[in-house]
Amino acid sequence: MAIRLFAALTINESAAVADASVAVLFHATTAETGPFVYTWEFGDGVTSASAAPSHAYAASGSFRIVLHLIDPNGSVTTAASSIEIHPAMMAYLPATISPVATVGAPVELSVDVSAGTPPYDFHWVFGDGTDSAEQNPGHAYTAAGSFVATVTITDAAGGVTQLSQPLLVEAPGGAANAPPPGSLTTLEFVAGLGVAAALAGALVWWIQGRPSRKSR
After folding, report:
1. Hey, CA dihedral for 164, 170, 172, 173, is it positive or negative?
2. CA distances from 144 to 86, 130, 181 (A)
3. Would you give the DSSP letter of residue 210?
4. Per residue of the chain (216 residues), what is the pLDDT tens digit?
5. Between vectors from CA 130 to CA 124 and to CA 134, what angle results, nearest 5°?
6. Contact 163/92 with Cβ under 8 angstroms?
7. What is the pLDDT of residue 69?
8. I need a surface site. Which of 12, 34, 36, 61 has the fewest CB within 10 A?
9. CA 99 to CA 146: how far, in whole Å?
10. What distance in Å separates the CA atoms of residue 168 and residue 174, rounded to the nearest whole number?
11. Which long-range contacts (CB under 8 A, 24 or more apart) does 201-206 make?
């Protein structure tokens, strides 16, 4: 009785690969008639009695998978396979991304990725109804406001990581926050108060310190 072992994630016909923490599906096929009793050994100390188990490895490395199959007559058949587990994908947004942008000026976004199983797919969503499939896109917002740019990275083994970058988009020249024409800015107002206070102090000193005139 022949048993063939399959892993859902494969590089080619002869090997299987996955990322740590990514679930791998296993199943066995046989020409015999069941029901069968299954005992799976995944090579990392974890076992399963399911006919088609799912298993995620916690660490990277090469693992030998063994299946013991017991048929209705009590006969035991053993099949084996192997799987290569890569370190879990890691990604981060560089600190060079500016959190403040100007309407119409491109925001240079980027993401650095390592480990996992390349190649990687990228999907940026900019929070204004537009998106991009580039790893390091430039994007110009057409309106002022607060936005969150989110990137989802998927590798060839099914590993998924998502990161977000908050952005504050301002109107050119800060016009969105500018005071109405003819009004004073906060700085001008404070400076004006300082000048007025100085003048008032000088006036009080002049009045109080001026010699009094005696009437003749």
Report:
1. negative
2. 43, 15, 20
3. S
4. 344 444 432 333 244 788 998 888 888 877 777 788 999 999 999 999 998 899 999 999 999 998 888 888 888 888 888 999 999 999 999 999 999 999 999 999 999 999 999 999 999 999 999 999 999 999 999 999 999 999 999 999 889 999 999 999 999 876 444 444 444 444 443 455 455 445 545 444 444 555 544 444
5. 35
6. yes
7. 86
8. 12
9. 10
10. 12
11. none
- Measured from the Cβ of residue 184, the count of other Cβ atoms closer than 10 Å reads 11
- What is the predicted pLDDT for the residue at 72? 86
CB-hemisphere CA count at 13 Å for 89?
26
Give the residue from 69, 79, 65 showing the smallest Cα distance to 4: 79
Tokens of 40: 């799976």
The three-point CA angle 28-30-33 to 5° equals: 120
Closest by CA to 86, choosing from 11, 176, 18, is 18
pLDDT at residue 7, as a whole number: 40
In the chain the domains, ranked by start, together with CATH numbers, are 4-86 (2.60.40.10), 90-173 (2.60.40.10)
Residue with tokens 């066995």: 28
Specify the length of the chain in residues.
216
